[in-house]
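Protocol step 4 of 6.
Sequence for Acyl-CoA oxidase (Rhodococcus rhodochrous KG-21) entered exactly as in the expression construct, tag removed. Do not edit the line below.
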Amino acid sequence: MTTAAEHIRITLDGAWRQARERARTDLDRPEFAPHYTPDLDEARAITLKQMRMLAESGYARAGFAKAVGGGGDAGGAVASIEMLAMSDLSLMVKAGVQWGLFGGAIENLGTARHHDRYIGPLIDLDLLGCFAMTETGHGSDVQSLETTASYDPGTEEFVIHSPTPSSRKDYIGGAAQHATVAAVFAQLITGGKSQGVHCFVVPIRDENGDDLPGVTTSDCGHKGGLPGVDNGRIMFDHVRIPRENLLNRYADVEPDGTYVSAIENPNRRFFTMVGTLVRGRVTVGGSAGAAARVALSVATRYALQRRQFSAPGDEKEVLLMDYLVHQRRLLPLIARSYALTFAQNELISTMDR
Ligand SMILES: Cc1cc2nc3c(=O)[nH]c(=O)nc-3n(C[C@H](O)[C@H](O)[C@H](O)COP(=O)(O)OP(=O)(O)OC[C@H]3O[C@@H](n4cnc5c(N)ncnc54)[C@H](O)[C@@H]3O)c2cc1C
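Step 5 output, structure tokens:
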């Protein structure tokens, strides 16, 4: 017989119940048990190992479009990553950066030449990447990023450069240690004219983990959480990349330096490009909700076990949950968490369409 709790879980799981159930089974393995080490190297190694286990079980493939070799289940991918947040936020962020942000940039902003070369390896973690958008000077205001990508028609290369201290890429997940390639957001300049922010594939480390010439990475170190994510900074000193490394789904630069785009208005072009990356935002909101639900579950279960003070005429002490003031603290939060879960499921459905 289905219990009331099971009914509630099925209802809250919504349309992506299967993906959520699969994540529950995967994450039930001892290798995914919470670890509280303050040692950054150890925490990062554990998180990467967990990601490799997920990759081996085909965890990430479903989220990519069928046209690029995936399973075409974008909604399932968001629900799965959200489930990781119930287990370990480091794992959720690291997986979200690799498959959602880095992979999402290659898939949504790139074309066949990028898909053929990068999607398979990044799904299997043969290629570890990072998503280098934020700079020290600009986070929310992506249009004002300062990193430049100047086209040189003589060599048919872009020159990636950090012209000011505030143009340093900052807080980039994977940049401190593991990523060998970055999806770098920079102002595209050709023929002396800036065409706005575009995304470029830029190799940053060699196979030994050392910075490539012209690239300087550094480590953001300890954070107030997420010890398993190697957030770092990147500076570029006139780093040359082939013209083909521009992710050119919405705009391209021809060999002679001519800029071409089907979207004439620069604002519309920019928002079309960043709009394709909305999945990351949906995932972050959902994951925050999932992590908060874990804390609420712990508090609720505790209140159903812990007894404090004797009740007159009763041998047993009183359960915390039987105190009205305690109920008033927890029950509205439980109600709100249900509402937010339904809202998140709606959002995923809208995104999936
Ligand atoms: C753990 C972690 C991991 C990260 N990983 C990555 C990564 O992998 N790649 C990457 O590119 N970036 C990454 N970031 C950076 C993240 O994307 C930025 O922190 C975020 O975009 C916000 O930018 P900011 O910190 O510069 O905040 P700001 O842009 O300075 O904004 C700060 C606050 O100011 C207010 N504000 C700003 N603008 C407005 C406005 N227009 N209207 C109203 N209020 C406003 C808001 O309250 C906002 O929260 C990471 C950050 C963290 C903390």
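Step 6, annotate. The pocket of flavin-adenine dinucleotide is lined by residues 97, 131-134, 139-140, 171-173, 226, 231 (CB under 6 Å).
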